[in-house]
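User: Predict the structure for this protein chain, please.
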Amino acid sequence: MTTLPAPTLPRTRIKICGLTREEDLDAVVASGADAVGFVLYPPSPRYVSPARAAELARRLPAFVSPVLLFVNSPAAEVEAACAQVPGAVIQFHGDESPAQCAQTAALGQRPWLRAARIPLGSDAPAFDLVKYAADYKEARAILLDAHVDGYGGGGKTFNWSLLPPSVNSHLVLSGGLTPANVTDGILQVRPRGWSLAVDVSSGVEVSKGIKSPEKIFQFVAAVRAADEQLAKASSHVQLPTT
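Assistant: Here is the predicted structure, written as structure tokens:
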């Protein structure tokens, strides 16, 4: 048998959501995260207006992506907001149908994510994530969030172990993630989709909408620790000699 290096696993991408302040955005960028999320849903305590999102997004360097989160917003509002934030990805977090998502995103020719609201506790298997991913096959990825009253995960974690073993989509793990549990979440969920990213908001906050630079850096470090564990586990494959 000949031992050869295995293909390198893609690193886990990181999005920090619910940004409202310049200093928090700067901390996210300094941490090495890949994306920042702006909540354009007025009932949310982390809400920012499209103009404010645009103002914050102008601080972003190249290759750090802005993501605009909408909940059941009219297509014209989504298009108008996206026009103010060049390069933004759309995140649909309400009850939007596959057709509504695709048609709205097409207005500005923007890539989009679709949130799946996973039931808490033992009810998680009742949610057909395989079918959901197939229904929203045009999405860039399916974001896995906990199903709570209202919209958003509310800082709650669903049972990752009850997710299907194989989903034909890129996945984004969200809902109750913290520096303490994100490593375990990645190890459990990464094998279930084509790739995995993570999305955190309350888990790196000192209060709603106010981020902690220390927690942000701890979260990123925990994600990288998970990547290192996965890389070690798949670092070599055994191939027959010829």
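Residues 1-6, 238-242 have pLDDT under 50 and may be disordered.
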